[in-house]
Design goal:
- The complex is a heterodimer of chains A (657) and B (121).
- In chain A, the strands form 5 sheets. Chain A has a 5-stranded mixed β-sheet with strand order 6-8-9-11-10. In chain A, strands 19-12-13-21-20 form a 5-stranded mixed β-sheet.
- Chain A has 20 helices and 21 strands.
- Chain A is elongated, with a radius of gyration of 37 Å.
- In chain A, helix 1 runs antiparallel to helix 4.
- Chain A folds into 5 domains: 121 residues, Four Helix Bundle (Hemerythrin (Met), subunit A); 107 residues, Alpha-Beta Plaits, CATH 3.30.70; 55 residues; 165 residues, Heat Shock Protein 90 (2-Layer Sandwich), CATH 3.30.565.10; 131 residues, SH3 type barrels (Roll), CATH 2.30.30.
- Helices cover 42% and strands 23% of the residues of chain A.
- Chain B has one domain: Response regulator (Rossmann fold, 3-Layer(aba) Sandwich), CATH 3.40.50.2300.
- Chain B contains 5 helices and 5 strands.
- In chain B, strands 2-1-3-4-5 form a 5-stranded parallel β-sheet, with helices on both faces.
- In chain B, helix 3 runs parallel beside helix 4.
- The chains are: A alpha+beta (657), B alpha/beta (121).
């Protein structure tokens, strides 16, 4: 039962989400009866199942909300904004009730009652409909109070011709009667037509039954409960008269004839069929993580095998190693894809946010989304939500103007926010675009000076000025509002995205709008890395940001050193470089010819000087543990084929340090 | 030989509960997630009994009953409706479409088994 209750909770979450989406869509197209149906269905399931899994309070509350929507479905009440508002609040209340561990306290119940009262007030003549006056047909005996002594009943049972086509079987009913007590049955066969005009699907019989039982009249009525509308039934107690008792005739078993011929086929079919495969399967995240970890180990071992095979020059071994490599790479992709979720459901949760916030601020904002089917790692999606909320809040709070101002500027009164997701190589790009007032570089500059982030005389390009938005402790809001002023700024957004190995880019045109682009890796567990060496140390650079590798001779470095600069001219483009040897204090065995790995970092190009570039490497990321938390520029480690450890560099952090 | 029951409900938890209950009572259970799925599975295997929810996406229970009843094999198999309290109107529609009986949610496991046994014999 507990498994079912858990499943129900998960399901209820989905249903509540569906409910919200449907309500929001309904607000836009109030005439759409399909949407009303969806709303109704979601509540109906929560109500029906809720009661069975012990969520009584939630079920009872949902019942009232559902009753209201029943009227909407019947066209007696029109969909209106207040109704949607109230229903959304009710939806949140249901969610709270479902999350409770114990019974609801008085406060919650009162809250629920208040909601129901408001809802009732919106209904024309809120009649109490459907309050469960009819208990389950086969519940406890309806009234145990007056069980009479042994009574003999005479039952006259004449099914209508169509009874058989409702799936009911008179023979079973008679069997059931026999279980109640001593029973004699006479079948009247007079109505059976001749064979030619006989319809085998029709019932032509009527039965005269005498039953002596101590179970009472209601027990007999219960037997016929499913067929009471499909037959004539007369039931009368006869206390003494048993003279009608006639010979026992078996009830006609012919009614089952059309079914019996199928019995054999059925057995064969059953052997063939397996339980119908479920279209999807819920698996605990732990198991998935375990699988991914194991695949990671496998990839490591496979690298060892490949290395070994290459060393031995044994053709068969090499071929096996290649097969293993191919398989493990497929397996890796497959295992990773299991952790992938569509981002669409996250997008749709923002509709509520946008709606509530724009209402609050008296702004009209339309949220559109695209690319909801784009898949991202579950962990990434989970950690993405907060930054996205913050960005959207910023857009609404600082970006989109009030309708009046928008009109003056010749913009449509309703602002728009567009959320989109798309694949780009091993990354996913998520864009949040608004058509608000944009960011004024002058204001940013002023603020930055005020906050002593820059000096008044600093010469900055507009792009650099925009970047200041991401500086810690920066907030452009004239006053801290309830929405954006929660002590978190864009620096937190940037840090959170960076924790996901992602990047944030900001574009803004004053008066036209702002676009934030989040670039995120598809997965966090395995990356494609570039393996490089410094003396006998191995490092991994994220391949996705690598642009090119160029050589750098010691003499050129010396020339630069004399001019006290570290800049490289690559086909006319000046690229600053960082000597990783200097960063990590490695001095011995410095080769004459070194390599510069040019990478795109923070929107610019930076070279990283290493001894040697070995090549691309499928990097299974291992955490290096808390002991090395201080090493902020190392994001993890990986184990190479020969068992050595390579450190994974976080190039953003290297630049910061 | 155990009988096979098709449970049609869009609620996974309800399907799970019904399946568990009926499995424990010795029945085979096949699940379908809506009316359309139900009709498909019904046409694939022989069912001894169909238990169906009424409100479902894609195809509701009543339409499913109509399709089963107007089909040409096993069309008179017993069909039990799962209704909430007394959706009298829905129940009536279901009966008119050819349902055999009904069981009212919330129900106890024993009640479900009792209804199944009642119509299966």
């Amino acid at each position: 039962m507990d498994i079912s209750a858990d499943t129900f909770k998960e399901e209820a979450c989905d249903l509540l989400e569906e409910l919200e989406t449907a309500l929001l869509e309904l607000e836009e197209t109030p005439e759409d009866m399909d949407l009303v149906g969806r709303v109704f269905r979601a509540m109906h399931t929560i109500k029906g199942s809720g009661a069975m899994f012990g969520f009584d309070a939630a079920s009872a509350f949902t019942h009232h909300v559902e009753s209201a929507f029943d009227l909407v479905r019947d066209g007696k009440v029109a969909v209106s904004k207040p109704l949607i508002n109230l229903t959304l609040t009710a939806r949140d209340h249901i969610s709270t009730l479902l999350d409770l561990d114990g019974p609801a306290d008085d406060g919650l119940l009162a809250q629920g009652d208040a909601l129901i009262k408001k809802l009732r007030e919106m209904m024309p003549d809120a009649g109490e409909n459907g309050t469960g006056q009819d208990a389950s047909p086969l519940g406890e005996p309806n009234d145990a109070r007056d069980i009479p002594a042994v009574v003999t009943f005479r039952i006259w049972f004449k099914p209508f011709a169509h009874l058989l086509s409702t799936g009911n079987n008179p023979r079973l009913l008679l069997d059931e009667l026999r279980e109640l007590g001593q029973c004699s049955v006479v079948a009247h066969t007079g109505d059976i037509p001749d064979l030619e005009s006989l319809d085998p699907r029709s019932c032509y019989l009527l039965w005269d039954i005498l039953l002596t039982t101590d179970k009472g009249e209601n027990a007999i009525k219960d037997v016929f409960i499913f067929v009471e509308d499909d037959c004539e039934l007369v039931l009368e107690p006869v206390y003494d008269d048993r003279k009608d008792e006639a010979e026992h005739k078996p009830p006609p078993s012919d009614v089952r004839a059309p079914l019996t011929e199928q019995e054999q086929i059925k057995q064969q079919l059953r052997q063939k069929k397996e339980k119908a495969a479920a279209a999807s399967l819920r698996v605990p995240v732990d198991k998935l993580n375990q699988l991914v970890a194991l695949v990671g180990e496998l990839v490591t071992v496979q690298a060892r095998l490949s290395r070994h095979a290459a060393g031995h020059k044994h053709p068969e071994l090499v071929s096996i190693a290649e097969d293993v490599e191919m398989l493990s790479s497929d397996l890796r992709d497959n295992a990773m894809s299991l952790r992938m979720l569509e981002i669409g459901s996250t997008f749709s949760t923002f509709r509520r946010l946008v709606r509530d916030l724009s209402d609050e601020q008296g702004k009209a904002i339309e949220l559109t989304t695209s690319g909801g089917e784009t898949e991202l790692d579950k962990t990434v999606i989970e950690q993405l939500k907060d930054p996205l909320v913050h960005i959207i809040r910023n857009s609404i709070d600082h970006g989109i103007e009030a309708p009046g101002i928008r009109k003056e500027q010749g913009k449509p009164p309703a602002g728009s926010i567009h959320l989109s997701a798309e694949h780009s190589g091993a990354n996913v790009l998520i864009r949040i675009k608004d058509d608000g007032r944009g960011i004024d570089p002058e204001i940013i500059r002023e603020k930055a000076v005020q906050k002593e982030l820059i000096l008044p005389g600093d010469d900055l390009t507009p792009k650099q000025i925009l970047q200041l938005v991401f500086a810690p402790g920066f907030s452009t809001a004239a006053q801290v509002t309830d929405l954006s002023g929660r002590g978190v700024g864009m620096d937190v957004v940037k840090r959170k995205i960076a924790n996901l190995n992602g990047e944030v880019a900001l574009e803004s045109v004053k008066g036209k709008g702002t676009t934030l682009t989040l670039k995120l890796p598809l997965t966090l567990a395995i990356i494609d890395g570039l393996l490089v060496t410094l003396a006998d140390n191995y490092f991994i650079l994220p391949l996705s940001s690598v642009e090119e590798c160029v050589e750098l001779s010691m003499s050129e470095q010396n020339k630069n050193r004399k001019k006290n600069r570290q800049i490289l001219n690559i086909r006319g483009d000046m690229v600053p470089y960082i000597r990783l040897r200097d960063e990590y204090g490695i001095t011995r065995d410095e080769p004459e010819l070194q390599q510069v790995v040019v990478m795109r970092v923070n929107g610019g190009r930076t070279g990283f000087v290493v001894d040697n570039v070995i090549g691309s490497h499928q990097t299974v990321i291992k955490n290096i543990g808390n002991a090395f938390r201080q090493a902020r520029d190392i994001s993890g480690a990986t184990i190479l084929g020969d068992g050595r450890v390579a450190l994974i560099l976080d190039v953003n952090k290297v630049l910061e340090v | 030989m155990s009988k096979t029951i098709l449970i049609v409900d869009d609620s996974a938890s309800m399907r799970q509960l019904v399946t568990l209950t009926l499995n424990n009572a010795g029945f085979n259970v096949i699940q379908a997630k809506d009316g359309k799925d139900g009709v498909n599975k019904f046409s694939r295997d022989k069912m001894d009994l169909v238990i169906t929810d009424l409100n479902m996406p894609v195809m509701d229970g009543i339409e499913m009953i109509r399709q089963i009843r107007s089909g040409n094999s096993h069309q008179f198999v017993p069909i039990i409706l799962l209704t909430t309290e007394s959706q009298e109107e829905k129940k009536k529609q279901g009966k008119q479409a050819g349902a055999t009986g009904w069981i009212v949610k919330p129900f106890k496991p024993e009640q479900l088994v009792a209804v199944a046994k009642k119509v299966l014999g």
